[in-house]
Amino acid sequence: MAIANQYGYYTEDYREFVITDPRTPRPWFNYMWNSQYAGLISHTGGGFSFLESPRDNRISRMRYNCLPWDRPGRYVMVKDSATGKYWSLSWAPTIDLKYDFYECRHGQGYTKITTEINGIRGEITYFVPTDTNAEVWRVKLTELSGQTRDLEIYSFLELLMGNALNDQINQPNDKHFTDIHFDRELQALVATRRYWVLNKGVSVKQPNIDWKYQIYFSQNLPIAGFDSSLDTFIGRWRSEANPLAVETGVMQNMEITAGDPVVALQSKISLAAHSAVDFAVTLEIAPKEIPPLNKGGKFSSPPLLRGAGGDLSLEIIDRQFAQLRQKWDDHLSCVQVQTPDEAFNAMINVWNQYQAAVTFDMARNSGYYHGGLLFGTGMRDRFQDILGVVMVDPVRVRERLIKALNFQFKDGSTLHNYFVLTNTGERTNHSDTPLWIPFGIVEYLKETGDFSILEEVVPYHDETSGSVYEHLVRALDFAIANTGERGMPRIFTGDWNDTLDHVGAQGKGETTWGAFFLGYVLKKSLPVCEQQGDRAALDRFQKFYEHLRQVTNDVCWDGEWYLRAFRDNGEPIGVSSATQGKIFLNAQSWAVISELAPSDRADKAMASSREYLATPFGMQIVAPSFTEIDDTVGLISRCVPGKKENGAVFNHASSWFVLASILNGDTEFAWDIYRRMMPINSSQATEAKCDRFETEPYVYPEYVTSPDHETQGQASHSWLTGTAVWMLRIGIDYILGFQPTFTGMIIDPKIPSEWTGFTAKRKFRGKTLSLTVTNHSEVKQMTVNGEIVEGKFIDPAKYEGEEIAIAVHL
Asked: How many angstroms separate the Cα of 729 from the Cα of each of 51, 335, 531, 626, 792?
C-alpha cells in the first residue's frame, strides 16, 4: 500500500515521490547533478544550475523569496497556432490555466512532469548526465483530441553566468559583459560573458578575469526563431507566464552583447491526430578554449549528447538517462531492508540514502533555503556528510577528505568554511570545527580499513605539510590546548550551536557539549594512535579523556541534567534555576554518546530530556525557549521562540538524542522519537499536518517548530541538513545493527518490541552481509553461514564467497 498525503505518494518501490496536486504548501524540490554540474529542480520546473560553485559559477537564475513563487525556471511552452492558446509543460508559470492532468515524479537525479491540457499530453523529464556538464529536458508531446495540430514550441531559460552574489548586488553593471549569438551550423544559442567577478570579497577592485566557459542551448527540432534578450522575449510589464514572443508568435532573432540574458528557441511542428513527437532541449557547458567544431568539421565539444555531425541525439540522451538510473540502482543496493514499518523502509532504502548523497555534494551551500551565496562549504559539514556516502563510494570520500584537509592550519585549527574555486574561506574560531577532522577520518577507516590514507601527505593552509595522521593529531592537540580554567574546551564564538556566539566571545567561556564531543573524538581516535604505534599521543589522549570525565562530572552536573556551558563571566547556562534556556538537549545526549556520564546520571539526563523536551515531532533543542534577549548568551536569544536553535525541534540534535537513547538502553523511546521525526510521518494528512509542515515529505528538514510557537509543526530548511546522515546511520548502524569497526563488523540490532523481525542486506568491504533477525526468540544467538558464533563481531574477510548469511535471534 502506497504511503501518501494529500499532495502525493511514494511508488511501491519508494523510488519516486509522485506529486499529484501542484499547489503544494511550498515548492518541493529535487536535485540533478554529477561531480561538477548541478541543479535544483522543483515540481514546477523551477530552480537554478551551477558548475562547481553555486556562488562563483552560477549558470541560471532563481529569485529567492519572490512572488510569484519559484521563478524563473526551465520552461517549455506549447502554443496552438490555430487557437492562440499557450501553456507550460511544467504547469508553472501558466498556473492560472485549468489543466486536465498534472503529475510530477521526483526520482533519484531526475524529475518528470506530466500535464494534459488543450488536448495535448506533455511529458518533460529533467536530468543531468553522469559524465557530461549539461542538463537535459527530454520532452514527449502526444495529441489526444483526434485532430491534426499545428504547434509552436518555445523553450527558454534565464541565464546568470558567473558570480551569483555579484548578480544580486551589482546586476545593472554586471550585465554589460554578456555575449550571446546564434550558431547556425550548430543550430544553438551560444552564450558567454567577457568578465568574471571571482574576487574574495566585496570590493571595488576589478579582477579583470574572463569567464572561461561557453553555454550551448539547443533543441533537436527545426529552429524557427530565437532570442537572447530577456527584455525583448518577455516584453514590457510582463512575466514568464505571458512572454510577448510566445503570445505574438514572433521571435526577434536578437543576439546581444549586453543586457539581461535569456536563451529562447522557437520551433514549429505539425502533430497528427493521436500521434506523438519526441525531442530534447539541452544546455551544455564547455571551456572556451575547446572549439565546438574542429577543422575537419567533426563536432568536438561538448561531445557526449550529440552525434558525429553535431546534431543532438535522442539515442545518446536516452542512453545517458539509462546510465543515470543504473548509477542509482547501484548506489541504493548498498543497503536494502524489509521491516514491518513502511515509512522506515522508504527512508532507509531510498530517500534517506538519496538525501545523504545530496548533502555530500551540496553541503549546506545550494538549495531553496541555502542560496549558496555566503557560506561556501563548511568543514564540520564536509567531515560529517561522509557518513552517508562512505559505504557506497569510499574512493570519492577519500578524495574529499584529503582536499578538505588543505583548509587546516599547521597549528591544528581550520577554516570554518571555504569556497572551492577561490581557495578561500573564513576563520571563525568555532571551537568544534577542527574536531570534525578526526571524526571523519575515523569513520572512513572504520568503513574501509584503509589505513594507507594516514600516510598521505597533505599541505596545511598556511605553511608546510603533514601526513593525514599528523593532521588528525594536530586537530586533537589544538582542542586540548584551547581549554579554559576549568579544563574544558573554550567555546569562543560558538560550538556546534552557532547561536551561542556570545557565551565565550572574550575567550573565557567553556562548553560542556564541546567537552563531551572532544571526549568522544578522543576515544574514537585511540585505536588509530595505537595502530600507528604513537604511544605518546595514545597516552596523552587517554589521560585527557579521563580528565574530561572528571571535570564534566565535577562542575557540569546540575542535579537532574548537565548544564550547557559557562559564560565569559563564569555564570552557567542550561541550569534549573534559569527562567529561560533551562535544559539543552545536546549536553544530555553527548554525555551518553561520549560515555563520560556515569550510568545513574546518564539515566537522569535522558529522563529529564524526555520530560522537558519531547514534542510530537521530535526533541526540542532547548526549553523553555528564550523570550528575552540575553547578550551574554548570544543570537539564540534573538531567534523567534520555538524556531531554529531557540527551542525548535532541531532535527540534527534530535537525532543525536535517538542515538543516546539507544546507547543508554531505551530502544522503545528511541524508536518512538525516530518515527516522529521521519518526514512522511510528520506531514501526514491529519489535521492538515502537511499544509502546516510545508516542506517536502520525502526528506528531512533542518527543524520543525515546537509548541513554543503558534506555528507548531511548521518545518523549514529542507534537504541540506546534517540530520540526513545521522538518521541514516542510526537506522543502519543501531536499529538494524550493522556497526563497522576497524577490523570488521559488529551485528547488534536494537529494534522495537512491536517488530517481529526484519531482513536486511549491507555491502561491506567487498562482501554482502545478508541479515535475518527474529524478535522474541526463545533462544538468543547469532549464526553466520549456519554456524553459531560467540559474541556479536564478525570479520567478513574470513568467510568465502561474496554473500554472508547472518541470522540473529533476539
From this structure: 30, 11, 25, 32, 18
Q: What is the CA radius of gyration of the chain?
A: 28
C-alpha cell at 203: 570590493
Instruction: Please give the grid coordinates belonging to residue 460.
Output: 596545511
CA distance 178 to 184: 19
Q: How far is residue 499 from each of residues 203, 496, 504, 635, 638, measured CA to CA in Å?
A: 28, 9, 12, 5, 9
Residue 578's CB is within 10 A of a number of other CB atoms, namely 18
Say if CB 134 and CB 128 are below 8 A apart: yes
Give me 240's grid cell. Answer: 514568464
Over range 79-101, report the average pLDDT: 98
Q: Is residue 512 classed exposed, middle or buried when 0-12, 13-18 and 19+ CB atoms within 10 A define those classes?
A: buried
Question: What residues contact 775, with CB distance under 8 A and at least 6 apart?
Answer: 751, 753, 755, 756, 757, 810
Integer angstrom CA distances of residue 607 from 332, 549, 600, 675 = 37, 21, 11, 19
SS3 232: helix
In the beta sheet, which residues pair with residue 418? Answer: 377, 425
Helix (H, G, I), strand (E, B) or coil at 141: strand
The dihedral built from the CA positions of residue 698, 704, 706 and 707, taken in this order, carries a sign that is negative
- Cβ atoms within 10 A of the Cβ of 97, count? 14
The cell for 643 is 524556531
User: Which pLDDT value is given to residue 686?
Assistant: 54
pTM: 0.97
Strands (E), 518-576: 565-566, 572-573
Strands (E), 178-219: 178-183, 188-193, 213-219
Residue 304 or 691, more confident: 691
The answer to whether 116 touches 99, Cβ cutoff 8 Å, is yes
Confidence of residue 297 (pLDDT cuts 50, 70, 90): very low
CB atoms within 10 A of CB 70: 23
Assess contact for 470 and 456: CB atoms under 8 A: no
The reported pLDDT for the residue numbered 371 is 82
Say what the pLDDT of residue 295 is: 43
At residue 148, does pLDDT exceed 90?
Answer: yes
Q: Which domains does the chain have, with CATH numbers?
A: 19-330 (2.70.98.40), 333-734 (1.50.10.10), 736-809 (2.60.420.10)
Q: Are residues 566 and 540 in contact, defined by beta-carbon separation less than 8 angstroms?
A: no
pLDDT band at residue 201 using 50, 70 and 90 as cut-offs: low
Residue of 6, 8, 154 lying closest to 94 (CA atoms): 154
pLDDT tens readout for residues 432-446: 999 999 999 999 999
CA distance 9 to 506: 52
The three grid cell numbers given for residue 758, joined into one nine-digit string: 526484519
Other CB atoms within 10 A of residue 564 CB: 30
Whether pLDDT at 308 is above 70:
no
Instruction: Please name the helix (run of DSSP H) or strand (run of DSSP E) that holds residue 225, with its range, or none.
Output: strand 223-229
C-alpha distances in Å from residue 484, one per residue of 444, 509, 590: 31, 7, 20
Count, residues in the chain: 810
* Burial degree of 761 (CB within 10 A; 0-12, 13-18, 19+): middle
| pLDDT for 284 beyond 50 | yes
**φ, ψ for residue 229, nearest 5 deg:** -100, 120
pLDDT digits (tens, 9 = 90+) for 175-195: 999 999 999 988 999 999 999
**Peptide bond preceding 624 in cis form (omega within 30 of 0):** yes
User: What percentage of the chain has pLDDT greater than the value 90?
Assistant: 88
**Chain position carrying cell 572551492:** 420
How much is the pLDDT for 291?
A: 61
With a CB cutoff of 8 Å and minimum separation 6, the contacts of 588 are 561, 562, 605, 606, 608, 609, 657, 660
d(CA 210, CA 246): 34
